[in-house]
Design a protein that fits this description.
The complex is a heterotrimer of chains A (383), B (227) and C (177). Chain A is of the alpha+beta class. Chain A has 13 helices and 14 strands. In chain A, the strands form three sheets. Chain A has a six-stranded mixed beta barrel with strand order 4-5-10-7-9-8. Chain A has a two-stranded antiparallel sheet with strand order 2-3. With 227 residues, chain B is an alpha/beta fold. Chain B has one domain (35-59, 77-225): 3-Layer(aba) Sandwich (Rossmann fold), CATH 3.40.50.300. Chain B has seven helices and ten strands. Chain B has helices spanning 48-55, 78-88, 104-109, 119-132, 148-160, 178-195, 206-209; strands at residues 4-17, 20-33, 37-41, 63-68, 71-72, 89-92, 166-170, 198-202, 214-219, 222-225. The mean pLDDT of chain B is 88. Chain C has a single domain (39-175), classed as Bacterial OB-fold (OB fold (Dihydrolipoamide Acetyltransferase, E2P), Beta Barrel). Helix content of chain C is 22%, strand content 20%. Chain C has four helices and five strands; from the N terminus they run H-H-H-E-E-H-E-E-E. A five-stranded mixed barrel of chain C has the order 1-2-3-5-4. The chains are: A alpha+beta (383), B alpha/beta (227), C alpha+beta (177). Chain A binds chain C through residues 36, 39-40, 43, 46-47, 50, 52, 60-61, 217, 220-222, 224-225, 228-232, 234, 236, 239, 241-242, 244-245, 248-249, 255, 298-299, 302-303, 306, 347, 350-351, 354-355, 357-358, 361-362, and chain C through 1-4, 7-8, 11-12, 14-15, 18-19, 21-22, 24-25, 27-28, 77-80, 83-86, 88, 90, 115, 118-119, 122, 124, 126, 134, 136, 160, 164-165, 167.
Chain lengths: 383, 227, 177
Amino acid sequence: MLPFSYAVRNLFRSRSRLLQTVGGSALVVLLVMASVAINTGMTRVLSASGSPHNVIFIGAGSEESVQRSEVPDSSAEIAQASIPGISEKLGVRAVSSEIHYMNHLEFADGSRAQALLRGVTPQALRVYPDLHVIEGTFPKAGEVMVGRLAWRKLGVPAEALKLGVRVKLDGQSLTVSGIFAAPGTVLESEIWGVLGDLRVLSKRETVSCVVVRLDDPAGFPDAELFAKQRLDLELSTLRESDYYFRLTQFFQPLRVMTWITAGLIAAGAVLGGINTLYAAIAPRVKEMAALQAIGYGRGALLASLMQESILACLTGALLASVVAVLLLDGVTVPFSIGAFTLEVGPEVAITGIFTGLLLGVIGTLPPAYRCLSPPLTVALRSA
Amino acid sequence: MNDNMIQCTGVSKSYRRGSTTVTPLEKLDLSVRRGEFLALMGPSGSGKTTLLNLLSGIDSPTEGSLVIAGNELARFSRRELTKWRSQHVGYIFQLYHLVPVLSAFENVELPLLLSPMSKKERHERVKSVLDLVGLGDRIHHTPSELSGGQEQRVAIARALVAAPPLLVADEPTGDLDRESARKILDLLRQLSREHGKTIVMVTHDPRAAEAADRTLHLEKGQLLEAA
Amino acid sequence: MKPILALSAVCILLTSVSCDSKKEAAAIDRGTPPATQSEAVRQVLAAKPSGEAVAIPKARATVKPGDVVTLKGQIMGNRAPFVEGRAAFILADTATLTACTEDCGSPWDNCCDTPEAKKAGTALVQIVDASGQVLKEGLEGQGGLAKLAHVTVTGKVAEGSSPEILLVNATAISTGK
């Protein structure tokens, strides 16, 4: 085997080429890390958003879009009385009637943004126990409470949704009475108002859904049975986790696009990298032929070339990791139904390192083949 | 066991160039004694480099028998040839072909890294060989810091360091000035006379051929004794 | 040479594994139908329906809780006509509702029929225990009961039934036209 120092010193033969290789692989690895972070972030927030304890009763046929769903007003009462195993605390059952409404919010400075509003009753807090009001109070009539990340999802500055600020919805003025947190879920990007207000604003006589929290997730069949015993209410029953799982599937094309874009850019960078490696290795054909004449096999030469390439690419990967941690970690990314935070965790880091390794290995192969495949006699003579 | 280091019998080499077949060597016979210093001369295209490549195990004959240091090379696979070369041949190129990023010391050490020697043994051997070629004081310089003559000495040291019985040199003085060339030829003669190395040298310079024990001319694939 | 190829193969494998999106919120295991049938279900499936079958829309309008009624229909009327893990299924009137195969991926949800027709033409058939609780056992796959199966049921109209909802506690179920 050729000494490792040979590979290291070869890297420094041309500073500009080294920078190109390191820079190119850093770019590719950064892209891959960003894609993985986006993908896992989106999946994480969607899967955390749905609890297996919760059952959503939604209008039959509207399982894909809760905003279009129509559920009779009386459903909550009837469900409360009929379904066994509903969580109960201090005599209050965890049953939440909700109206989901999407419309434009108008801010004090005149700007508008499309917001997801949820009209609820105080019982909602029983159904979503991980949701806590961290500032201010639960809304009363004429008030709303906003999720901690709502400003990010709406694309407005955080001050636009501070406590006490007034926003307009369909001409109606609403005051921000509180801010809530629901860590890791899409709920944090929503704006919650009073059910009665939303009923008026959305001009509905029905609610969008009824969400019930069961003590034991295994009690789900009882909820389903209830819905089928009351076919007159025309309800569909879904576990909340299944509802969000379907949404994850819905975002599959988006995530595929993320990967395809990253892949295309990466392919360009890889080809550029291979080109750089060609330029680095081609002048060394004679040198490598001389080493073969001395008695080094092509395997040993290939290994040395790979050492060089992998070293440069892993350096690029390291650089990309540092950039990722500095620039990507903690960034909140909004998407249509919520927002998620990017996490540069072990999965992202490991993927980055393996990408660097792979780049080093793959990038070496074409130039190495070109340099090592000619017969020794030809290589020794080459210009 | 006969005294010949090299024994070629009926050796031919042909290869394809595009649609035609070229045969630079045809049914060649050659014997070289142990410790002999042989010069090969001939016009360009006469096949002397081809013959050198065969004798040094870099290439294989298309036909014939090629026995060097007791091994029938014509039957060796590529891998076997590579191994055989590392133990039996020291190659000296016209353009030295030293690794530019390694020092003289490290360049000379390269063939020894293929052997099971310990680090201490390797370093001792490298030092002694560099002393032998007269470069004891420049061992940590890189090739770019050495003159042409010094580079060729490093190349010769590298060719010697694994103690191969056969040295093969392709125009070793082709790129050197008269004075340096003379010194290199003196060194080669010393290696042949005092250290028993068998040397086959290809050259186009008649003055260089004078340093050898015997000169053969290669013309149209056939060997002729010098006048 | 070979160690390098092996290393490359390992790298490619590990990279693709770590790139795979993690398993999304797995739906909680839906449980297969019980291997053993309970005695109560077996009895109901073995018993023969009796009496004249009444069309479901007519039955809804005329029967009262406690009446014995015989219904005939097809298991359809909903995307999931069976209740998983419970002894209950939706029976639909074949005269007013049709399982259309053209547009629907799942013909048993009668997407070609109007919601009003579905409401009027369906009933829930259930098997209860002595205290009136629906048995905790799925019926799909038992005794020939499957989506779109033709079924005849005799049973008692359950409490809570009204012209808007028809619930029948089955005492006899048979499959086949």
